[in-house]
Amino acid sequence: MYMIMKQPMITGLFLSLLCLYGCGFEERRKQLDEREQALNLREQAVMLKEKEIRLMEDSVRKYAAKMDSASRMIAEPGIPLPDSLAGSWNVTMVCTQTNCTGSAVGDIRKENWLLGGSGTVVSIRAMQGNKLIRIYTGTFTSNGLKLSTPEAETSRSAALMQVELKVDQLNKMSGQRLITQSDGCETIFKVDMERSKNQ
User: Fold this and answer.
1) Is 50 exceeded by the pLDDT of residue 122?
2) Least confidently predicted of 48-52, 66-70, 119-123
3) Can you spell out the DSSP letters for 8-48?
4) Termini Cα distance of the chain
5) Considering the entire predicted model, what is its pTM?
6) Nearest-CA neighbor of 91 among 121, 124, 138?
7) Per-residue confidence (pLDDT) for residue 20, from 0 to 100
8) CA-CA-CA-CA torsion for 132, 158, 149, 67, nearest 10 degrees?
9) What Å distances lie between residue 193 and 67, 86, 138, CA to CA?
10) Contact 126/179 with Cβ under 8 angstroms?
11) How many C-beta atoms lie closer than 10 Å to residue 59's C-beta?
12) Nearest CA to 91 among 198, 191, 199?
């Protein structure tokens, strides 16, 4: 009789423990789910922060590259432009390298450049027909001409342009023009210049 009474009591106790354990299990599972959600949210926040940092690093890298290319223009002090180089030049530029959209290797540009100088400052007025399209300023040195678009011009066009030229013969010059866009992409043109015949 005692055994018969004890058995339902054990069964009841076992069922109560099982119920308590089941409730505890449900509570623990709920806590684990909440923790998992919190971890997922934190992981997403970390991924967003990493993306922001990458974008900032890209922006800093592009700015540093632009500043570095601008500093390449600073070289030896200039000397006055010889009279033999002043005047009108026919210019042909051929794109040799680019990673910019809208530009392609082989693109050709033709302009007329008017070279002049004041003291050690050299300027080029780039013309298409009778229209002034750009002004470069820089220096003439024993190595040739080094010019870039002035700061005000650069801020308008959002591109930095640099020109390096060497004198090949009395009536011929050659070199390159580097265009650095605001997004950091670059286009390089080979430049060939010939003294304008109608001078």
Assistant:
1) yes
2) 66-70
3) HHHHHHHHHHHHHHHHHHHHHHHHHHHHHHHHHHHHHHHHH
4) 132
5) 0.58
6) 124
7) 57
8) 180
9) 28, 13, 17
10) no
11) 12
12) 191
